[in-house]
Design a protein that fits this description.
80% helix; 0% strand; mainly alpha
């Protein structure tokens, strides 16, 4: 792995950690800011909305800036944002600060992908993109459990101070390691063609699958800490270790998803959706029992990320002739799903259903996704359609 890619990975790891670590310290944040745990859950949905809406807009607004300058500017926003979150006096200011950081997050990943593929030969671009995306996965393995443990020992504000220091490290690494002129920009397809490819059933059905996947993951993951404490009865000190195991499962899932995407994408995807529905049903059943619950959480984490890989692969394959708009919708779509999932979870908790109801919602979402995937595959088979070639140079 080249040193510039390592610099981009560190920043991706920092952004990924600050997005997801809030789930590990959610009860402490709620107490510290004087709100209920369901209300604090809007810190997750607010962040997701910032990525989904603000990220693409900021990317468009800053497209004329040098890529290295923009990446460093986004890192500075991250650093200042983490320090401000650590000092936030109330829930409203915390929410607004999280949204501001999220806008920078959304722009960072779009720009970092462009820069990453410009740093390597053409036959290594897929691996360069994987390095950036692995920052999100590794943040679940290391960043979230570590941030949760720090919050448990020194308080949730300490977690954000550590994130601030990580942002400084990322900014210094990019300053030192990124070349002054970095980045690859493919010649874009026309806007009309970019929009037309979204009408392909393989694209919009995959976006539906993406939404269902996020409901299956984040209805529960947003409230995983209070679920483990109140329903499973785990000690608070054990929660970071469960999150670590979940992250290990997620990391393994990325590689499994990549393998099956290159093998038989749709049959594998349908099978994994069915397995995830069963897994969430098992979580509902065993949630009061610590050991079976921990095992189920690890399997659930692995399947979440294994399923996400073929969904993204399918979207990119079927928009290869006009991929700019569609590829920007991938992180946006995921985060719209995260926001909806966190909000749905909060609504259910406020309605009195309890934490144990959350995996049941996820299981239902996975069953819907499985049906959509089967219909899409049958539709595709009957049409004899094939994925398009990459867009020609204009």
């Amino acid at each position: 792995m080249s040193l510039p890619l390592i610099a981009l990975f560190i920043a991706a790891f920092a952004f990924g950690t600050t997005e997801f670590v809030i789930a590990g310290v959610l009860p402490q944040v709620a107490v510290g800011l004087g709100v209920s745990v369901p209300s604090a859950g809007y810190l997750v949905s607010g962040y997701a909305c910032g990525i989904a809406i603000g990220g693409p807009l900021l990317t468009l607004a800053t497209k004329s800036l040098p890529r290295k300058t923009l990446l460093l500017g986004l890192a500075i926003v991250f650093i200042v944002g983490q320090a401000a979150c650590a000092l936030a006096p109330d829930f409203t200011s915390m929410l607004l600060l999280r949204i501001a950081v999220a806008v920078a997050h959304g722009a960072y990943f779009g720009v970092a992908m462009v820069v990453a593929v410009g740093l390597v030969p053409e036959d290594k671009r897929g691996m360069a993109v994987a390095v950036i995306l692995s920052g999100l996965t590794v943040s679940n393995v290391i960043g979230v459990p570590a941030g949760t443990a720090i919050g448990n020992i020194w308080g949730w504000r300490a977690t954000f101070w550590v994130m601030c220091a990580l942002g400084v490290a990322a900014a210094l690494a990019m300053t030192a390691l990124l070349p002054r002129t970095a980045g690859y920009q493919a010649k874009p397809a026309g806007l009309a063609r970019e929009v037309r490819v979204l009408a392909r059933q393989q694209v919009w059905t995959s976006l539906i699958l993406m939404l269902m996947l996020m409901l299956g993951q984040f209805c529960l993951f947003t409230y995983i800490t209070p679920t483990l404490l109140e329903v499973t009865g785990l000690d608070e000190d054990l929660v970071p270790w469960v999150l670590l195991l979940n992250g290990v499962g997620a990391t393994l899932g990325v590689f499994v998803g990549g393998k099956v995407s290159d093998w038989k994408l749709m049959p594998s995807l349908i099978t994994m959706l069915a397995l995830q529905a069963v897994t969430l049903g098992v979580i509902y059943a065993v949630s009061p029992y610590p050991l079976p619950m921990i095992v189920a959480i690890v399997i659930w984490g692995g399947l979440n990320f294994a399923i996400g890989t073929p969904i993204q692969t399918r979207i990119l394959a079927w928009t290869a002739d006009a991929s700019n708009l569609a590829s920007s919708l991938i992180p946006s779509g995921f985060n719209v799903g995260i926001a909806l999932a966190a909000s749905l979870g909060a609504a259910m908790l406020n309605a009195g259903y309890g934490y144990r109801s959350l995996p049941a919602v996820g299981a239902a979402a996975m069953l819907v996704a499985m049906v959509v995937a089967v219909i899409s595959q049958v539709w595709e088979g009957r049409s004899n359609a094939t994925p398009p070639l990459t867009a020609p140079a204009e």
